[in-house]
Amino acid sequence: MSLLTLVLIALSAPVLAAVGYFFWVVKISSAPTKGQPIDRNARPKTALLVIDVQEDFTRNGPKPYPDEKRAQAIDRINRDIEAARQNGEDVIFIKQVFRHWPVILAMKLLMGGIGTPGRKGLAFDRDLKVGDAPVFEKPIGDAFYNPELEAYLAQRTIGHLRLTGLDACQCVQFTARGAMNRGYSVDIVEPALLTVTPEKWPSVKTALKDLGAVIQTA
């Protein structure tokens, strides 16, 4: 075997690894997670999940939401937060931080870097009433990718989730599917959602309903 062949083999290994990693990230980013089924009879409690309502996504993106639309959704989320707390239900905040380098590179090249590590815009929206609620970070769409969320829900005997936040057609959808894959019952609060692709929401909503999600329209 020639020296040139050895050099080419040595150089190709990291390239193949990088390509493989890229396609792995694409795969996990475009599908909900799966996990162990829960015992719903042992999970009587409800939690409100507030997904990705962060400044980078509510205000800093290349396709920002209209001020009125954003204000209406966040106002509804805040009212649901207050109602959940009054009812003794858990309120959980989900925070998106892209951690995989292919996604970080794409976000920096195409989206101004929103959602990437170190940005001030990772903070929750200034109008959101976060309080001292627990926060779980995720690097992909489905919040259940973070095992600490599952552990918290188990500890708190939570089997019913109400989902709010953004993006309805991406992270909310994937989190709903990840939850239902595990046996959680899921309500999606439509007035408390935002999406940059509203034309896709009707078909996404229909698919979620077919899987068993309840779409709360008021």
Order of helices and strands: HEHHEHEHEHEHE
Number of strands: 6
Residue share in helices? 40-55%
Gross morphology is globular
What's the average pLDDT? 89
Q: How would you concisely characterize the structure shown here?
A:
This protein has 218 residues and is α/β, with parallel strands linked by helices. Helix content is 44%, strand content 18%. It has a 6-stranded parallel sheet.
Any key phrases for this structure?
218 residues, alpha/beta, six-stranded parallel sheet, globular
Walk me through the structure.
The model is unreliable at 6-11, 15-19 and 21-25 (pLDDT under 50). The protein is of the alpha/beta class. 44% of the residues lie in helices and 18% in strands. It has helices spanning 3-29, 55-58, 67-86, 101-110, 147-155, 168-181, 201-211; strands spanning 45-51, 90-96, 135-138, 158-166, 185-194, 214-216. The chain has a six-stranded parallel sheet. Helix 6 links the parallel strand 4 (158-166) and strand 5.
